[in-house]
Specification:
Blueprint: E1 23-27, E2 30-41, E3 46-57, E4 63-66, H1 73-82, E5 85-90, H2 99-105, E6 110-114, H3 117-120, E7 129-131, E8 142-148, E9 153-159, E10 164-166, H4 182-191, H5 202-207, H6 212-224, E11 229-231, H7 242-249
Parallel strand pairs: 4-5, 5-6, 6-7, 10-11
Antiparallel strand pairs: 1-2, 2-3, 3-4, 8-9, 9-10
Length: 254
Amino acid sequence: MPSPEESLNGQSALNLYEPINVLKPVAPDVWIVDGPPIDFDLGLMKFPFSTRMTVLRLRNGDLALHSPVALTPALRSAVDVLGPVRFLIAPNSLHYWWVPDWKAAIPNAEVLAVRGLQKRAKRPIAVDRLLVGRHSPWPGEVDLLVVRGDVLTEAVLFHRATRTLILTDLIENFEPKRIHSWFLKLLVRFAGAADPDGKAPIDMRLSFFRRRRALRMAVQEMLAWHPERVIISHGRWYDKDGTAELRRAFRWVL
């Protein structure tokens, strides 16, 4: 998520998934919230990223917020109607920026994060529990799989009841029609993260070179779950044919 050099100024460069900051039903007890954009600093230029939060309601009524988007009073009120927020999930070392804001608003919520986040984070973040291995805080309800790369470690969630797989950056699927800059469109296509053939961008794929076998095993486990849908944080997500989309997006490692 954004560093101090990154900001919420991407509106002119990216068409958003309107309406933003609104709960959108995906399946029973699963919602997404498309948030405001961030500008990710690439050095010589900034790239606008859309943001997306996934909300899961557990069997006991508690909520888990995956990759929280910017907190607004209206969004907080809408979330409160669904149930009490129990978990705030930072699924990798980039998707954490707004977790401290939600934690400040909901002190009783537990912050769950991947190992190493606190060292890499560009703002202070208190972590209550680490997401490691397959040790999920919600046994039998949401499967957890931690995928380790040289650059990025990502926690993958699978909501069993609805067969919904929740990824963050392991697949990116930017729609060129939503990007205004021709150069950014070219960059997305070169990275291999353009709809309809979105996948991990090329720099991330290269970062798994030494861990290719472990990643292949992780993808095979995801495929064995037979997801019906796949939610991702950036770009068009997959509301059907999830298993086929997963196999397509990870064909570079299978």
